[in-house]
Specification:
This protein is an alpha+beta fold. Helix content is 35%, strand content 17%. It contains 14 helices and eleven strands. α1 runs antiparallel to α6. The radius of gyration is 21 Å and the shape is globular.
């Protein structure tokens, strides 16, 4: 019933303007008629539970039926999240303070919950620090985050007033990139997204790893660029794709540092994957997690865990030369979930 309710909400809020724009983009990329695209999109929605953005970003217009049915589409992704993750435990991931407490073994940094702290607590936390990183409560994708230089404030009163004015919920140590990662882009913590799944036997499995990089002055790596990583070698397997997957931009090198992307070796990948496989057992009621992991000079640390795994990261055309999506792999691990 919850899944049907989700479908009704999506259809009710569907934007015909965005649909029209998507059809136009597909027409430009494929050369097919807009009418044919519309009816094929509608068929894919019925048959493969895909949205119009799925049709565009996964290039369904170039796929055969046997290939289309292997993709985790929007509605299938939602179903997996609803069936695999107990909503009563999501707050342990969504609330920054609760997450840091539950997964402190792996976060590798100190933090302060501003809602339960005094000005004196803030003074003690920032003492000796050049920078702090500030986050809002219950926000994702880096929304509202700021990296502050403590010396930019006249005194503690000025800093404390700013933190209160912006309604920040937590402040924490600034993560330092591994030198190899910083050589590609240094103004953001360029993290890996590691997706884990607890199968029907309770074993944790790594489904996929992508390396994200910030770009163009951003202090976060969201909506910038990313590419899949080989778990065994740590090498980036393909050119990077734009973080805004609708754009479909491909980067063979980082636009700012000019470092080639494909073949770049990400340090500590095996250690990062094992860390996430271990962390996946801390809250077993949340079986399907997208972990953001930073690589520091001394090893991996977990930034956050996402209980809603973005399904577009790991099935894009430049990264799936065999034109096969992730659904067959997931079905083997969780045959109890009929998708």
């Amino acid at each position: 019933m919850a899944e049907k309710g989700y479908l009704r909400r999506v259809l009710k809020n569907a934007s015909f303007k965005k649909l029209s724009e998507t059809i136009k983009t597909v027409h430009q990329r494929s050369g097919k008629s807009k009418l044919a695209i519309f009816f094929d999109m509608a068929w894919c929605t019925l048959r493969y539970r895909s949205g119009y953005y799925d049709y565009l970003i996964f290039a369904f217009y170039n796929l055969k039926a046997k290939e289309r049915k292997t993709f985790v589409t929007r509605f299938i992704s939602k179903k997996l999240n609803m069936r695999l993750n107990d909503l009563d435990y999501c707050h342990l991931f969504d609330n920054k303070d609760e997450f840091y407490s539950a997964f402190g073994k792996y976060t590798g940094r100190s933090f302060l919950d501003l809602s339960a702290s005094t000005k004196e607590d803030v003074a003690a936390f920032v003492a000796g620090k050049e920078q702090i990183f500030c986050k809002l409560r219950d926000k994702t994708c880096g929304f509202g985050c700021e990296r502050l230089n403590c010396k930019d404030f006249a005194d503690l009163d000025a800093l404390y007033s700013y933190l209160k004015e912006k309604d920040f919920y937590t402040i924490e140590d600034v993560i330092v990139n591994h030198p190899d990662i910083a050589a590609v882009y240094s103004n953001a913590v360029s993290s890996m997204r590691i997706i884990t799944l607890l199968d029907d036997t309770g074993k944790s499995n790594c489904l996929y790893v992508v390396q994200k990089f910030g770009m163009n002055g951003s202090i976060i790596d969201n909506n910038c660029m990313f590419s899949p990583v080989d778990i065994e070698t740590g090498k980036i397997k393909y050119p990077a794709h734009s973080g805004d997957t609708v754009q479909g931009i491909i980067y063979t090198e980082h636009p700012n540092s000019k470092v080639p992307i494909q073949g770049f070796t990400v340090p500590y990948v095996k250690e990062a994957v094992q860390m996430c496989l271990d962390a996946a057992h801390i809250v077993p009621q949340i079986r399907y997690v997208g972990w953001d992991v930073a690589i520091t000079p001394t090893g991996p640390v977990i930034i956050e865990g996402n209980t809603y795994c973005a399904h577009d990261f790991w099935q894009l055309p430049p990264h799936t030369p065999d034109k096969i999506g992730m659904l067959p792999t997931i079905r083997k691990l969780v045959p109890s979930i009929k998708v």
